């Protein structure tokens, strides 16, 4: 969500901070700001909207100073405008914040009684006033920050500066990530290592409850009781180059077309294409000895987990419980040390998913993290990292990370089946060979972009869309609806096709496009019956199927998109591509911000 950068350097830092913030744009934001200290005085520039607006402001009104903090804000408390943008000031204190201060209303009332006034609607300004009040009571800056931090409840990552001290930034973490970067006579703070990659690859990740005193030549880290703690310093794998769109219009388009390559890379990590076997994995548990697998995730990652439930239960006869992470901890499900749990997150920082991981760890379960960022908090706190090798994904709406998650989970389901004796060696070879075909089929589907763009042009004229699917195509229908609503802002819902008569059919008329995901499989005829029900009520059917399905549909469609005939295990991976392209082209016709849709963030680091 919000992005934080801090630099204690030896040259003017404002342009460096802006460049670092650009590396955090993928997280989502609606305003930005920078503050520096020069000759002991605080200066600040803020702007609503994109970073280019802040750059223009800095060009007209430059900020000097060799120490500074910067921020990209995703609004939680207060509307997106310049007044609510960070940094916030209070009597010589400057602060930037990612997270939610849950007791801010109580603290705000207390501060108002102490004659502090508020210029913004944010919870962040409360923290600035708390620190300023401790300074007014006679505390030195570091201790003032510490005492203020102890009053906070909720999730926060913070960077704090003090006028008159050009060699001090205090950073703190309780939930959202924050890293310290070590340089030569300069130090850095950042929401993740990507932001700091141009400056240093020597990184220390703060843990929950840590706060750091950052100076040019030293960093000291403490816990909330004020005890000094040691945190491991490591070399980051993040690269300093900026990811660009190449010759594509949007990152999302580029990332859709990268899928054949990244699916191949990911599968090669888990299966031996030549030998036709799944690769041994250093798992902290034995698939043959667990009674149940729990999976938890949010958004698109949750839907990847939901698809994998079909695979684990079908191929490995392993019962799977799958939960939206925001609900996982609250339904009081029985947990056992003999069970294992997988947590899925592109960023590895998703707050609800991370909280669920910690909940299971506390219960003694063995943890696997399916993540795209190996240095993430979830990766560090899991027993085993199960990486998706998608590479950086910039578009807020996940595409290649989703199909790589599916590739990992399908491979693991095969491995589980082998371990549990539910898949014979011959079946394993067949399934691995089928998985190895996924990149080739994905390339074929991408060549249908012209037809899909034409369908999207028609789809862009409607206000509501229904997606239907059965088996693994049911969660894929939900994913199609999610993609469309995320980036085109068209209302869409995904349903199991068999549920049509249990409510959604009431919506069907000539103004309702119905996108049906239906390869010709053992339950295809049941889906045809649902399509006939839609057609009888004037609904506009867009059928995504294979050649045999197109021949046997026996129903008039608005459009039929014919995909290659693919094996069952890779159907969700291959059929994900046309629903992504359909959402993408529809959003382009709608004129929306495809890569950074309104109100959404790439990395959701608060609950």
TrEMBL record:
It catalyses: D-fructose 6-phosphate + L-glutamine = D-glucosamine 6-phosphate + L-glutamate. GO terms for cellular component: cytosol. PROSITE patterns: GATASE_TYPE_2 (PS51278), SIS (PS51464). It is found in: Cytoplasm. The gene is glmS. This is Glutamine--fructose-6-phosphate aminotransferase [isomerizing]. Residues 283-422, 455-597 form the SIS domain. Its main location: cytoplasm. Homodimer. It comes from Mesorhizobium mediterraneum. One of its GO terms (biological process) is fructose 6-phosphate metabolic process. Catalyzes the first step in hexosamine metabolism, converting fructose-6P into glucosamine-6P using glutamine as a nitrogen source. One of its GO terms (molecular function) is carbohydrate derivative binding. It comes from the Bacteria. Residues 2-217 form the Glutamine amidotransferase type-2 domain. The active site is at 2 (nucleophile), 602 (for fru-6p isomerization activity). It is an enzyme of class 2 (transferase). Keywords: Aminotransferase, Cytoplasm, Glutamine amidotransferase, Repeat, Transferase. InterPro entries: GATase_2_dom, GFAT, GFAT_N, GlmS/AgaS_SIS, GlmS/FrlB_SIS, Ntn_hydrolases_N, SIS_dom, SIS_dom_sf.
């Amino acid at each position: 969500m919000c992005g934080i950068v801090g630099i204690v350097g030896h040259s003017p830092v404002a342009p460096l901070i802006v460049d670092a913030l650009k590396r955090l744009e993928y997280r989502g934001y609606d305003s930005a700001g920078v503050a520096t200290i020069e000759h002991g005085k605080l200066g600040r520039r803020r702007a609503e909207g994109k970073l280019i607006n802040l750059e223009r402001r800095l060009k007209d009104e430059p900020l000097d100073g060799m120490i500074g903090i910067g921020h990209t804000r995703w609004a939680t408390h207060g509307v997106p405008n310049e007044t609510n943008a960070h940094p916030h000031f209070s009597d010589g204190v400057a602060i930037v914040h990612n997270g939610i201060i849950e007791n801010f209303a109580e603290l705000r009332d207390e501060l108002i009684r102490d004659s502090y006034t508020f210029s913004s609607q944010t919870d962040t300004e409360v923290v600035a006033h708390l620190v300023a009040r401790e300074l007014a009571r006679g505390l030195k800056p570091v201790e003032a920050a510490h005492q203020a931090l102890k009053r906070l409840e909720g999730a926060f990552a913070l960077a704090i500066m003090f006028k008159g001290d050009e060699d001090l930034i205090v950073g703190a973490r309780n939930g959202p990530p924050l890293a310290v970067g070590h340089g030569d006579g300069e130090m850095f703070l950042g929401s993740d290592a990507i932001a700091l990659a141009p400056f240093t690859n020597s990184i220390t990740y703060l843990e929950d409850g840590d706060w750091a005193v950052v100076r040019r030549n030293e960093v000291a880290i403490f816990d909330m009781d004020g005890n000094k703690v040691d945190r491991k310093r490591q070399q980051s794998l993040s690269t300093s180059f900026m990811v660009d769109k190449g010759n594509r219009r949007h990152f999302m388009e580029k990332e859709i077309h990268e899928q054949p390559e990244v699916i191949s890379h990911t599968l090669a990590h888990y299966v031996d294409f030549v030998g036709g076997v799944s690769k041994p994995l250093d798992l902290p548990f034995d698939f043959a000895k667990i009674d149940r697998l729990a999976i938890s995730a949010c958004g698109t990652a949750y839907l990847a987990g939901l698809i994998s439930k079909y695979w684990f239960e079908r191929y490995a006869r392993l019962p799977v419980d799958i939960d939206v992470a925001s609900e996982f901890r609250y339904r009081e499900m029985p947990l056992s040390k003999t069970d294992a749990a997988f947590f899925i997150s592109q960023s590895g920082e998703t707050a609800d998913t991370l909280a669920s991981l910690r909940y299971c760890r506390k219960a003694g379960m063995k943890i696997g993290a399916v993540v795209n960022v190996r240095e993430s908090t979830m990766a560090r706190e899991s027993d085993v990292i199960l990486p998706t090798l998608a590479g950086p994904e910039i578009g807020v709406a996940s595409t290649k990370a989703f199909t790589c998650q599916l590739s990992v989970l399908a491979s693991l389901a095969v491995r589980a089946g082998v371990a549990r004796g539910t898949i014979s060696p011959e079946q394993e070879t067949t399934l691995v060979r089928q998985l190895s075909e996924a990149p080739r089929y994905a390339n074929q589907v991408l060549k249908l972009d012209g037809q899909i763009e034409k369908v999207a042009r028609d789809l862009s004229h409607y206000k509501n869309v229904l997606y239907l699917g059965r088996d693994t195509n049911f969660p894929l229908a939900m994913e199609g609806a999610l993609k469309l609503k995320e980036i085109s802002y068209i209302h869409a819902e995904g349903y199991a096709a068999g549920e049509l008569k249990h409510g959604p059919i009431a919506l069907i008329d000539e103004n309702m496009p119905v996108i049906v995901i239906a390869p010709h499989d053992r339950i295809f005829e049941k889906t045809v019956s649902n399509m006939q029900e839609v057609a009888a009520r004037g609904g506009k059917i867009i059928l995504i199927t294979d050649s045999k399905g197109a021949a046997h549909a026996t129903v008039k469609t608005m459009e039929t998109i014919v995909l290659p005939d693919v094996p069952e295990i890779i159907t969700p991976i291959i059929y994900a591509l046309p629903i992504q392209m359909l959402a993408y082209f529809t959003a382009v016709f709608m004129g929306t911000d495809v890569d950074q849709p309104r109100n959404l963030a790439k990395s959701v680091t608060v609950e």
